[in-house]
Amino acid sequence: GGLPVYEFGFEDLEVTDVVATDDPKELDEIIVSPNPYYESGQSAQGQTGNVMRVSNLPFGSVVTVYTLDEGYEKLKSELEHLKTKGREEVAAAIAEARDKGDLSENAEYDAAKDAQGYLELKINEMEKVMANARIIDKSQLDTSSVTILSTVRIKNTKSNKEVSYTLVAETEANLKEKKISVTSPIGKGLLGKKVGEIAQVTTPAGTIDFEIMSIEIL
After folding, report:
1. Is residue 82 predicted with pLDDT exceeding 50?
2. Is the pLDDT of residue 182 over 80?
3. In what order do the strands lie in the sheet with 206-216?
4. CATH assignment of 69-134, given 3.40.50.300, 3.40.30.10, 1.10.287.180, 2.40.70.10?
5. 122: which of 41, 47, 75, 149 fits an S-S bond (Cβ 3.0–4.6 Å)?
């Protein structure tokens, strides 16, 4: 398998208050709502009407959303659970509430029907995500510089110790598996660097210099 890519439409896009900048600190001011790594289904629908808003984006920027294979498989598993176990539980709750008598004044029945509506909405939204997913070949991903999904071997220029990390989305970070978030101090320091370049990473103990030894897509 490869990596799913979620596509977003930008029809009728309106850009306001455009200010050109080359200050990397401006990237810390970017706001994405809903966050595509956290939001899906009902929550995204209710908050933004299926519109992803990007605020404070520097002029000329490109927005790309990635996920890993395991994230895609997790979504498939959750969808299957909702369509089977989830629907069974809601149907049982509706049947139980119906057996209690007059439906016109049955709060439990109303709550169960509402839960059914929310469940079907979430299933529908997740099915849309799955239908729009595109699988790409990892071998076609760029390895000329560090990006999300890159596996990077780095060397501490002071201690000469080497370690490898894979840069992933925040929700898929797992230090035991050497997967670090692109929003972490190391992740931010590595992004955009090429083999042979030095990445400066700011930590509570001070600034550490890492040399980029290799970049791969595993």
Report:
1. yes
2. yes
3. 179-181, 162-168, 151-156, 206-216, 198-203
4. 1.10.287.180
5. 41
What's the sign of the alpha-carbon dihedral 57, 61, 67, 72? positive
- How far CA 215 is from CA of 14, 87, 178, 188, 196, in Å, comes to 37, 45, 14, 15, 10
pTM of the model as a whole: 0.48
Q: Residue 156: name the closest of 216, 215, 198 by CA.
A: 198
Q: Are 49 and 33 in contact (CB under 8 A)?
A: no
Determine what percent of the chain falls in helix, strand and coil, rounding each to the nearest 5: 40, 20, 40
Sequence-ordered list of residues with C-beta below 8 angstroms from that of 44, at least 6 positions apart, any chain: 34, 50, 125
Would you place residue 23 in the very low, low, confident or very high pLDDT band (cuts 50, 70, 90)?
low
User: pLDDT tens digits for 88-121?
Assistant: 999 999 998 888 777 677 788 889 999 999 999 9
Q: What's the CATH fold of domain 139-216? A: Chitinase A; domain 3 (3.10.50)
CA distance 138 to 152: 15
What are the sequence ranges of the domains in the chain? Answer: 3-55, 69-134, 139-216
